[in-house]
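Researcher: Last one for today. Full complex below.
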Amino acid sequence: EDKVVQSPLSLVVHEGDTVTLNCSYEVTNFRSLLWYKQEKKAPTFLFMLTSSGIEKKSGRLSSILDKKELFSILNITATQTGDSAVYLCAVAPPYGNAGNMLTFGGGTRLMVKP
Amino acid sequence: SAVISQKPSRDICQRGTSLTIQCQVDSQVTMMFWYRQQPGQSLTLIATANQGSEATYESGFVIDKFPISRPNLTFSTLTVSNMSPEDSSIYLCSVGEAAYGYTFGSGTRLTVV
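Model: Here's the assembly. Have a good evening.
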């Protein structure tokens, strides 16, 4: 059974801190790993990673994938209260496999205190 | 990426009733996905809806409880039938594919009383 595990479960930091969120996976078919930020209801897309070792950056957020060790990390530097959210990691199979469905991890709840 | 309009945004329903959630996409898509997120939990796939064929349901979800319609390539509905408090969740539709990423609707927060 495909499995995506995120850690930590929750995290409380102060503004300005740097955080690292972890996502490990065990899946039969892998195409890409995606990170989402969920503040209220709808997850909003952050990154899609398909290749090992290539860091993707967007402002204070960055992410990297290690396909050998089967994990990804999401870094947030200089955290702000607006970064408070649940961060979800998901793995997608190759096109045509398993109906293209995403397998989600349990999420990391981040709270950034002023 | 596609833009999805999902409604209703939220609803409070009596047990035993049914609620239909709609998702409209601004472009034609082959597959649409319906997820449930119970309180404090991650997203769980309910079913995959292809236009012109019956939806494919994941283990633990059945068509009688969650009937899905997919009348065309831009629209789908999910009905939560004979609701109980355990159905209180956020319901999300999604479109996309592995090569290009996935987009989610704005979500429906359902409370069953």
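The two ends of chain B are 37 Å apart (CA to CA). Chain B has a mean pLDDT of 93.
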